[in-house]
Design brief:
Two copies of one chain form a homodimer. Chain A is 39% helix and 13% strand. By secondary structure, chain A is of the alpha/beta class. In chain A, strand 5, helix 8 and strand 6 (234-238) form a beta-alpha-beta unit.
Chain lengths: 493, 493
């Protein structure tokens, strides 16, 4: 392997001027890869040469390289230095903006949704579809130790009803943590729930009535569609770009044209590492969206459950960080980033906090104290942060493996999203592939995917699917993903 | 104390012929008390004399007397034999049947409801109002041991989403236990929830739409009223007798007159140790009610949460035991009889089981596995039964203390229910007492009661209150209850 010519690098040419120096270095190296100056298996510039070229300290370069390594962008080879890894985007293109019909409509229930929930737990099925972090990626020993200690030290009140809004120890941890989300929340801004799905359910109950319309990205988080249907509400899908998020002009038009009979009362969005599209909205768009909602008196129900799973150094801000008037109902949990079985989440419901407290009490009185204290201790002790530091590069790496297999086995013309965090991919197959048929054919071989139509009130996206990279990568997964690709290729003809 | 003349006793004269012999003896002794042959502080017939008189074995008499003792009917005095205790009904009469206006109506939200939920946890307040078992009555050490062991032995899946309908170990325990409820249910008849309130919430979602009417006893379990309101449904209160339950003729008339616009789609009832009235419906009435609902295609949402807290030997059957066509949605948990903080309950939803599974998944995915396994082990190990054997006589005794204080301190003309299980009392004060004022006046002294109007969609019962005997009896409770009585007496003028 002949080392490439030294690549020209500078810190002036990119958009990250306000970032810390090491982040600017990360972006500069990425820029060289993006513009083709550095290709897979090229030797990366040495730390010493970058130190000289850029005029920043060796320590800063070392920090940047350790981030790039964690991100799977470069790898260190013994006694030889750093090399550029195979990049996910070396072949695959990203999908185009979606164009759903923009009408308020009833959601049709989809049988596949419930069967997917069941499939998620059938031991023999390799599930590439549901948006869950595999239990093998949980820090089980530490969780067991922490929860055991909480149980051992619990007094009688640990086995008594907790009080809405939740245990103060957890509320306080969340308030402290909100600083890292670029928010500045207080303990009493939060209400504890049994997971983020309950948070969103409560949010819908608080901000809309039967007959009201909820606007949302298209495609969207499908269980929410089903909940909207169940609560007698209507859904309106807004065109969405897999790189930048919801089309805010289209949203504004939809709000202007909102029917008197089914008015748009709320907007649902996953602004960070979107489910299923993977994008992060820019800060400008986030601010614009919050301003738009504030001006039109529309509530924003935000699902920020993937926000901590950023591959880059900085945690993207939730919409809540841009919310001055309390129009954002911020919903989240650690079910996608620590473990899913505690069933503890939260909502920071802005101006609806009193309503949400009342509905939470009516729904199931309270969330178990022992689970709340366990989560509080995971945050306080630093376990969660240590776990994240391991989890992020693992997910990044698995996603890279997914890209390789997709590039090799999926039909020509396939496009796929390229998220910078989370663990979900949205795959757009050639138009003639019927993904419901693909779903059924792979299920015969005990491999499950999430077919596109369930992500849409109007059952669009019949040539699309969602894949989950929240798995420990091994031969069986590779086999299963290849099977999906080969079956799709066969169906593409 | 002069022993009373030997009382005439026989096993022929009562309605319990199909009961076990020891139960017949219990009823026979109770009959002597009820007809005045035996009065408080009288010596009870000796075991030997009853053995001779009734011609049943000594062992049977001993068993009957130990039940009567547990029930607080007789007490053993050292070296002297058994004596009749002060009976709860020695002074107080039971309230009359209620007569609510029978119309489909929207529930008005009541601020006191949420404030009561908050008061329930304020350490300085003595809460005589909420229907909760005090944490001091939980078997904390055993709960801690069992839950600790579940956590210690849990694998990764213990921290993963559980699958609806719930963990099989718990489902199997419930199926086995249903035999004692005179039901014969299978594991897959149940769906596990985060407590009985969630079960009822899911049941409402499954059987009714916004605009539909839910019929119910009057007074009724007030959080359900608030949920009905939140879901856009209407409430219809049916006249109810504190001794026998809902007036089924009135119900039948209400169904016949049911408005096309707000049809009665479901009936909500607490058939065993009713909240708040304390009655147990007779088996005949239970059968009649289920037949009526079946004939008119109306769902029955049954809350059986107090059923295990029977003071007499036999556990009353839930409506589910009379349900052949699957019209009963049986909801319950052990939150009122073991501990409230696990937040695990269940629903056996009959013909709606598939809907309920779907809505449970949409509401909060699943109930924590570790909590479910803890409850399963409490049942399997016999802890729950051992705990019940202690709890029932404790509650019975506390209720007796309540009666004594009520008889001493409440205004003349007060009537109070006399339940044979559970831990709730419904008190009817003289008509001129404004219970909202009573609520506010006692709250100034940090004593809380549950005022009557919150138990009614039409805010009736403004001279009534509910009291909770699920407390360890001590001087402070006696002081608080006396305060309520004296304040009521003052308000009665």
């Amino acid at each position: 392997m002949v080392p490439s010519k030294p690549a020209l690098i500078s810190l002036d040419s990119h958009a990250g001027k306000n970032l810390p120096l090491y982040e600017q270095v990360v972006l500069a190296v990425r820029g060289l890869i993006d513009n083709g100056s550095l290709r897979p298996n090229d030797k990366a510039p040495s730390i010493r040469s970058l130190h000289k070229q850029l005029g920043v300290s060796m320590a800063t370069i070392v920090q940047a390289y350790s981030i790039l390594e964690a991100q799977g962008v470069i790898e260190s080879r013994p006694r030889s230095g750093f090399y550029i890894c195979n990049q996910p985007d070396f072949q695959l293109r990203e999908p185009e903006k979606t164009t759903p019909a923009q009408i308020s409509r009833k959601v049709s229930t989809h049988e596949i949704v419930l069967s997917m929930a069941e499939i998620g737990h059938t031991p023999d099925i390799i599930n590439l579809g549901t948006a869950t972090l595999d239990a093998e990626l949980f820090p089980i020993k530490a969780l067991r130790r922490i929860m055991g200690s909480v149980v051992r030290h619990s007094d009688a009140l640990g086995f008594y009803y907790d009080m809405v809004p939740g245990d103060y120890k957890l509320l306080k941890q969340l308030a402290q943590r909100s600083l890292r989300w670029h928010c500045r929340m207080k303990a009493d801004d939060f209400v504890i729930t049994n997971g983020a799905m309950e948070s969103m359910h409560l949010a819908l109950l608080a901000v809309a009535k039967p007959g009201d319309t909820i606007a949302m990205e298209s495609p969207t988080f499908y269980p929410l569609l089903q909940t909207i249907h169940r609560l007698g509400m209507y859904a309106m899908e807004i065109p969405t770009d897999p790189r930048t998020g919801m089309d805010l002009d289209a949203l504004q038009t939809a709000i202007k044209n909102s029917q008197h009979k089914h008015p748009i009362k709320a907007l649902f969005t996953v602004p960070n590492f979107n489910n299923p599209l993977g994008f992060v909205m820019s800060d400008d768009n986030k601010q614009h969206l919050v301003d738009l909602a504030t001006a039109h008196d529309i509530a924003i129900i935000e699902d920020d459950i993937y926000g901590d799973l950023h591959f880059d150094a900085i945690r993207p801000a939730p919409l809540k960080a841009f919310d001055k008037e309390g129009v954002v109902l911020h919903c989240s949990s650690l079910s996608k980033s620590l473990c899913s079985g505690l069933r503890v989440g939260w909502i920071a419901p802005g101006r609806w906090v009193e309503d949400i407290k009342r509905y939470k009490y009516l729904m199931n009185v309270s969330t178990p104290t022992i689970s709340q204290l366990t989560l509080a201790e995971c945050l306080r002790s630093g376990l969660y942060d240590r776990h994240l530091a391991q989890l992020r590069p693992t997910l990044r790496q698995t996603m890279g493996q997914f890209f390789e297999v997709i590039a090799k086995t999926f039909p020509k013309g396939t496009t796929v999203t390229q998220p910078r965090g989370g663990f979900l991919l949205w795959v757009v197959l050639p138009e003639n592939v019927n993904v419901t048929q693909l779903y059924q054919e792979t299920l015969v071989h005990n491999v499950s995917i999430a077919p596109g139509p369930i992500f849409s009130a109007g059952q669009e996206y019949n040539n699309c699917l969602r894949l989950c990279c929240g798995l420990p990568w091994h031969d069986e997964i590779e086999w299963a993903l290849s099977l999906v690709g080969k079956t799709a290729t066969k169906l593409a003809g």
